[in-house]
Amino acid sequence: MKPLRVAFVVHLMQVAGAEVLVRETVRRLKGRITPTIFCLDAVGRIGEELVAEGVDLVCFGRKPGRDFGVSRRVARAIRERDIQVVHAHQYTPFFYSALAKPLCAFRPKLILTEHGRHYPDRVSPLRRAVNRLALDRLADAVTACCHFSKEGLTKTDGFAGRRIEVIENGIEIDAYGPPADKGLAKEDVGLDPDRRYLIHVARHHPVKDQTTLLRGFALTAPDLPGVDLVMVGDGPLRGELESLAVELRVPERVKWLGIRTDIPDLMRAADAFVLTSLSEAASLTLLEAMASGLPAVVTNVGGNPEIVRHEREGLLFPRSDAAGCADAIRRLFRDDELAARLGANGRARAAERYQLGTTVEAYFNLYCQLAASRRRPSTR
Asked: Which of 95, 146, 293, 324 pairs as cysteine with 282 (C-beta 3.0–4.6 A)?
């Protein structure tokens, strides 16, 4: 069987969930697909990695606003490479890919995969109508990384829900796991083995609501003098968040590590994981924390409760509720038996349900099914 010619369409190949999935799909399907990455806006760090590995990448330099010339350039790149399947991750990459499809005589099969949703999740009546009457018909398959994202596609965007398949995210489970010696694990990443750590891994962005995290942690600080907060990541709010830690009188209790490449080691060194997002789909860092055996404190939003069941793999609390966050943190660090049980359950659930290999094979099977089909778009 000849390798399938597959194009992956993204905004840019930055360090984020959808882009990491694309990278791992390209690497794991080496020899079974001939991949091309289409970046609408910029190459990004992951894109540079893949180019160094010899992967074909095209950047279209999209202009602000609606740049319909991008669709013409996408169509040209599809025709030049005789692409069989176009896999668009997120709505905007799908929008431009769908407009490109008629310019290719409808020959490439087109997949839309929905990951996260905006917060608040609203779209214009015009967009909903265009989706329902036109763009949905140009998609040969529609998938979502969790049921929350599927619901957003149907109830908010107007796509036909009956054909949307949920393909859950996965991670490399074997790369994560509890350490043999927690103290040594902490020393290996430069942390104090005599202290305990609550770890947060995410970009510093309003949707991640690190303000609630810092306020919640500050409420617990007097009660948990041996616990520090580890912030991994970076972003536009980094300076404001550091200033807030000073204002809350916990600057010495918060460690800002920036972007790191040793996430599995940091997870092994931590004692619990926290995620305070206003909206979330299927967080890879949450799955990584579970695979590491960490009990999780997460907001009860989006796909979080699909992954973490309250009192079984972690503790859920309402979005923007600093007091609720603080209560959950206190419970984990005051009740070692509870923390150990939640952590063990989380690792078992991640291993059972969120394996990267299962996710990638599900997408490859979909590519094969579509490539074998020569039907034109339906007229549902």
From this structure: 146
